[in-house]
Amino acid sequence: MLEPITGAEFETVGVGTDLTVVDFWADWCGPCKMQTPALEALDEDYDGKIKFASLDVDQNKELAEKLQIMSIPALVIFKHGKPAEKVVGFHPQAALKKYLDQKLAEVTAD
């Protein structure tokens, strides 16, 4: 299961890690429910290499607005504790793995 966080915890979610992925979702979002199993599997695959967390946009509307999350599911990618990229929409596990492998290679090269 992805680590659930709140808006208050969001500011420190990527601190101390090279790469962190935060999933923005809502309970009513069908594509979000499809995305969750892929993210949970990737969380296991990247154990210790990439940190994963999830944030419910309905409970954290101000933060979603601040980050301009207009569509969900959305992933915010943190590099070295700072939001660096946003990935919007449903993506199959294999596509996310390929993307995350690339991002992991980038942060380890920094």
Automatic annotation (TrEMBL):
Keywords: Disulfide bond, Electron transport, Redox-active center, Transport
InterPro entries: Thioredoxin (IPR005746), Thioredoxin-like_sf (IPR036249), Thioredoxin_CS (IPR017937), Thioredoxin_domain (IPR013766)
Alphabetized CDD domains for the sequence: TRX_family
Domain Thioredoxin: 1-105
Source domain of life: Bacteria
Gene3D superfamilies: Glutaredoxin
UniProt keyword Disulfide bond present: yes
Keyword Disulfide bond on entry: yes
Family (UniProt): Belongs to the thioredoxin family.
The protein's name: Thioredoxin
Primary gene name: trxA
